[in-house]
Amino acid sequence: MKRVPMMLQLALILFCVMAIPTAILTWYSGAQILRNSQTAIAESSLAGLNANRKLNENALGNLAQDTVRLAATDVFNPIRGFSTFEELNANYNNVSRALAVLYELSNLNRRVDGAYSSFFYLDGSNYVISTDSGISKLDRYEPIDWMRQALEGRRGIGGVWYPRKLPSGLPVVSYVLQLNRLTTTTRGTIVVNIRESQIEQYLHSTEPGERGYLLLNRDGTVISHNDKSLLLSDGGQLPFIRSILDSESKEGYAFHELNGERLIYVWSRSDQYGWLNVGLYSLDELMTESNTLQRQIILLTAVIILAGTVAAVFLATWLSRPVRQLVRTVRSRSGLDVKNKNELVFLDAAFKRMQEEEEGLYRLLKEREKDTRSLAVHRLLQGEVPERIEELFPEACYRVAVVSIDQYRKYKGKTNPETRSYHRYLLVAKCESLFPEAFRTRCVYQGEGCVAVVMNFGPGELEREPAGVRQALEAIGKEAAELTGHTVTIGVSGLTDDPGRVADRLAEAMEAIKHRMIQGNGGIIFWNEEISRSRKYIDPANSERRILNFLDAGDLDGIFKELEIIRGKIRSAEYVSYDNILFIYNQLVGVTIKHLRENRIHTGRIFAGKGNVYSALTSMDTLDELEEYLREWFREIVRRLGRQAGETSYSERIVRHLEAHYREDIVFEDMAKEIGISYSYMRKIVYELTGKSLIDYLNQLRIEKAKQLLASTELTITEIAAEVGYPNVRNFTRFFHKFEGMPPSRYKASQFRVQ
Fold first, then answer.
1. CB neighbours (10 Å) of residue 207?
2. Which of 250, 265, 285 is the endpoint of a domain?
3. Closest CA relative to residue 407, chosen from 399, 398, 415
């Protein structure tokens, strides 16, 4: 190619340039075809299915939330004492209370599109309150036995969705919500019926090529379908649906052929309800547009290639003339010896020489850039001595001061990164302007709320200007406090006349700052090498043992006095390292937690939600903060231990009260007042003691007493029910079956057979 004439090479290059639009068009056509290909169509259909599914789930979720909010109100409490239709119709006030429930149910229907009806059934009653039949007896209303089957698969205390057909033949999806003990003392069930046609509106797609949709529950029952004859049938019997049901994937698509037509099956499972949404689309219909577009693009590509070839030849001829003239001019004026090569090779050699000259200039500029002030200071603090350091620091002596923001974690938590960057900029600018003129100062940010100040001065200048330096440091502290809203501690290192030792002076200044643990925040701390060498190690083991003894006795004052003794020992020592101080308090926390666990005390409940105590200790700046934190920490432990002891005595009183009064109609609120605690606290104690709710524990106690009477007496079922606190035999039978799995008559017969 080096000997090929430049015009031919240029023609080839221009042809390639002309071919770029062709390549772009080809890429665009390929992307369009891919978008309309089987995979792209399937993913688009799946996205539409997911959108419809989320729309349906949001609508049903809103209905569920409205129903839960209604369940949390006290509208049902006024009728909980009326277990029969006759009691409810005994007077106008009773009927008004029921009408209030009917009014709220009607409001619930009006808030939801497609709501057909709703009703409320009070457990143990012989009536329902419904929006379609008003206040009706059970024998005049639709059967409600299906609710037990619907609630069998319930998880937690939320409601369940259950597809069914009304006696009228109307397909609906019912939301069944049992009132729970956490929100009300009334026991009953709210049912809201949504027309299946409303769900069809949510799931039906308007995309071209749609052939139908299905909505299946966990066991494959058809909840909604465009063919209404298949509702509530086994969806697994439909073509290709069984393989989708058996698939473990959350969503996906598959291609099948049915009756000579290629179809796309797309499916998506609901995390919220466990339902399976399936959409069917005709692939043949959707691919028509793609095939037409591909043919048009092929034709357009051929036209562009032909036009590009003609244009490339014309442009090569036109553009090569000035380039050849340029080569002749450069060849005559330069000393390049390039023979028997075409013009492009000659220009390449000329450009390489220009590139070499440019790289030399670039290296020179980079060296000048590295010599800037901030980079030099950073390198100096890292232990490197930059070239021409005397231009930046002409004097012989160095000293380093570090300005550290106190309680930096709090400062960082209440300011955003932009504000902190602005504070750093102002603080660095102020630090460099406050020192005496004889001091060359340069400041850089070191991270974690610390600004390093490198002071450069001549021999004897520090002795002549000691007050000026201290005033400058105090002024820096004042300016930083006003700027950041936090006090700052300033650590000052020793002297050095070797720029290579500046990094060691930085370490001394950082170590001096740690001494604010004893001296407190907001001061100026100078590095003292003699004191640091004579450091003393403190191990308050005796105080730890005494604190554990006081903890067992619940003596907070004794614990606080020992904490004061530890702090006094640290302050009285000539020098205690920062690491030793943290070790003392971390060790104290560790032995306390170990002591609690050895005494079988559940530390997880005591420290739940308190965060990591060791991280909290590390974030403290002063001994006062450490001691105050540990005071609160031990106070919480003693309070929790006292509460646990109190719960034990309360549980005994609760059990004795229920044993003595289980035959009576117990009002739990009055029982809690008699014991001396709140109703919610009493429920919490019973649940932690038995694992059952208060009402379940009482009913189980009554059933146990009834079992004794059934096995040892000749009393009738009605007499035994009244004896153990159930004036209503139906309620007694229901609770007996719930706890024993059989009716009381069968249990009594089994006991007599054993005898």
1. 14
2. 285
3. 415
Q: List b or e across 648-679, with b for residues whose CB sees 16 or more CB atoms inside 10 angstroms.
A: eebbeebbebbeeebeeebeeeebbeebebeb
In this structure, is residue 525 part of a structural domain? yes
pLDDT digit string (tens) for 446-494? 887 888 888 888 887 766 766 777 888 888 888 888 888 888 888 888 8
Ramachandran quadrant class, 259 (left: phi over 0; alpha: psi -120 to 50; beta: rest): left
14 lies in some domain:
no
Cβ density class 386-420: b for 16+ within 10 Å, e for less:
beebeebbebebbbbbbbbbbbbbebeeebeeeeb
* CATH code of 429's domain: 3.30.70.270
Are 690 and 617 found together in one domain? no
- The parent domain of residue 529 ranges over 373-533
CATH number where 192 lies: 3.30.450.20
Residue bearing tokens 């909604």? 224
Give percent of the chain above pLDDT 70. 81
pLDDT in tens, 334-371: 655 666 566 666 666 767 766 776 776 666 655 555 44
Give a yes or no: residue 2 inside a domain: no
How far is the C-alpha of 385 from the C-alpha of 375, rounded, in Å? Answer: 11
Count of beta carbons in the 10 Å neighbourhood of residue 549: 14
From CA 262, how far away is CA 702, in angstroms rounded?
66
Q: Are residues 453 and 575 in the same domain?
A: no
pTM of the entire structure? 0.40
Confidence class for position 754, pLDDT limits 50, 70, 90: very low
